[in-house]
Structure formats: structure tokens, C-alpha cells
Amino acid sequence: MNAYPGATGARLPRWLLPDNWPIQDAQPQRATLHFHAEGLQFEPDSAHPPAGYLALNGALVLPALIEPHAHLDKTFTVQRSPAQQPGLLAAIAALHRDREHWSADDLRRRATQALHWAVEGGVGLLRTHIDWFSPDAPPAWQVIGGLRHPLCDIERVALAPLTFFANSRDAQHIAAQVAASGRGALLGGFIHSSNWDAQAFENLLRAADQWQLDIDLHIDEELNADAQGLRQLAHYLQESPFNGQITCSHSCALSQQADAHQILDVLAQQRVTLIALPLTNLLLQDAVPGRTPRLRGLTLVKEAQARGIPLLLGADNVQDAFCPVGSYDPLDTLFSGLLSLQLGAAFDEASALICQRSALHAGAAPIGNDVVVFPDADIASWPLRQRRRYRLKNGVRYALTAGEQTDGA
Ligand SMILES: [Zn+2]
């Protein structure tokens, strides 16, 4: 296996560079990357490139991308089980009908296809939620737990409706099974006005803390100003310490709540991560038959960023009753976010939203020994017109798209 000791001529995004990084012609100077066993280091290119380094010639380089929020158990089912009406609750009903098809083979085939699409996009870490239909782990928990890919770590979140936590024995039972699943398994929950139960929510948080689990919640995926999930989470965290990492996916209701800024202040203090899902939020929020949507349905990304709250963008559902389209390409998600959230410079600023590992794993280095390279080097078009890409992992080049060379096979 041919491994490069490093690479020269990498155009890194400004968010990754120190303030004193040299600027040439209004652009950051290209970087030399050193792939050390203890991690990646970089410095401005020098006049004399080190021998044996791969020449990137100004190619755009990002840390390996992250898909922080997927549903590999539901994906690729829209052809056989489309939603009968617009909106979130009709999609849930359609997926429940589809479950009769969920044999181990069916789950494995669909989840593997999703994983391959994500890896083709440059994803090195994929977090998938998996629906639980009772307090006992569903077959999909094991099937997807058995998936492996040399270029992608997979994390599983137990997505159980809040009602399953109403009884603290059940809450403990769910958390115990997640804890027994080892690294990369998290506790989750679907928390919505339609199933709100303050005691159940407290049971969920206490069970996660007792079993030392990180959590990732589907929370307040609605535009109801009375949604209680994040409000109660902020209240809980002010009273009770929580040792693990908390991630809140969706949080759409914040955009309608008069006390949103106070809630965000608490989340910032507690280093809670937010994940916005622009594709499905645009599609499912403010969805009324025969009426053009008036609201975007997205959480308060800019207000969260202003407070230093870690933040990522995810794809959410792909080709199922929730969302009939989707590609598992984080660049498609980012493009949607660039417009719907009116984000800043795509590559130099917004790209952090699809590759910052510390948002999910506090303390992770901003860039590890695993990067994705966009050889067309067209920064003005990025993230559009960027089909070609490859990975450099521990110095080994892996083709992701046709026409790129693999040195690591
Ligand atoms: Zn989701």
C-alpha cells in the first residue's frame, strides 16, 4: 500500500486556518500537509516541497465529511411506501406500514446502499437514528450495527418515542441495551407536542446519565411555539449536571418561541450541539395541502453560532415517506442550507457545518489524518460542480468517484 508522507498545495478553508495565516492575492496561501502517526499537521507551502509529497496544485481540501443525521432503516422505501398526505405525522404512518418488509436482508441491502453513497460523497463519520418500536431493540439495531466500511465510522442512535420512557423501568431497559452495544451507540428519542410528557423526558435524561450515554434527540420538530422539549431540556440542565454529550436535532420550534434566546444561552453554557436538517425541514414544516409554505422551518442557526453553540447540517431522511429525494452527499445538504439559512462564504465559512468533528465528539481535532480532496479547485462554484473527489486517509489515496486514482487498494 502506497502512503504519502504528506501533500503540498492544499487550499484549506479559512475557518480552519489560524488568524496569522499568510494571504496572497486575497486568498489564503496554499498549505503543506504532514500525515504524522499522531495526527495531521499543516503549514504554509514553502519554496522547496518535501520529497515524496503528493502535489495537490490548489485542490480544495476539507476534513473527511460528516453525515450527522441519517435514517438507514427507513431509506430507499419511498417507491413501495409513499406518504399519503404532506407533513411529518403522515410520513410516520407510511413508514409504520412499510415495516412488514424489513427483513434482515432488506435492511442490510438498503443501509449498505446508503453507506456507499455517503462514502462516495466523502463521508468519514455517519450517524444514523434507528427506530425502536418497543422497549426491546429492533432487528435493525443489530443489522445496522453489523455494517462496516474502511472509510466510514458508523454511529447508531436508539430513536424511541417519548412514550417509551414514561415508565422509568422501561427507560432503564432501553438505556441498558444501548450501553451494552458499545462504542458509537447513543440514546435518542422523538420529543414532540403530540407525545409530550415531562416525566418521561426526565426519565430519558436520567437513564442516559446513569448509563453514561451520549444522547441525540429528535426534539421540537415542529413550528409550535408551545413545544416544550428544548425549553425543558434547558431547565433540566440548569438543575442537574449531565456528563455526556447532548445533541439536539431539528429544534425547529425555536424559530417561533419568544424565549428562544434564553434557551440558547443555556444550551451554549452546557455545550449542547444543534443539528439543522434543511432538506426535510423545508419539506415537512409548514406543509399544508394546496397552500404554498410561508415559513422555512429551520432552527436558529445564526443565533446559535453567535453563542458558540456547536452546529452541523444533516441530510435526515433520504428517499422514504418523509423525504422522497436525497443523495447522502453532504454538499447537497450544504447547498440547501446556503440558500435557506442565508449562510456566508460556502467553502471558507459554511463548509465547517459538514465536517467539524468536535461538534459530535468534544475535543476532537479540527482536522485529522483523513481529508477529502476536490481536485477541480473551483472555489467560486463549490459546492456545486464538485462531483470529482478523493480521500487521503493516513496518506493513502482512495478514489471516491470515477476517473480518480486509488493507491490504497
Ligand atoms: Zn431524523
TrEMBL record:
Residues 196-345 form the Amidohydrolase domain. One of its GO terms (molecular function) is isoguanine deaminase activity. One of its GO terms (biological process) is cytosine catabolic process. Pfam families: Amidohydro_3. InterPro entries: Amidohydro_3, Metal-dep_hydrolase_composite, Metal_Hydrolase, Metallo-hydrolase_Enzymes. This is Cytosine deaminase. It comes from Chimaeribacter californicus.
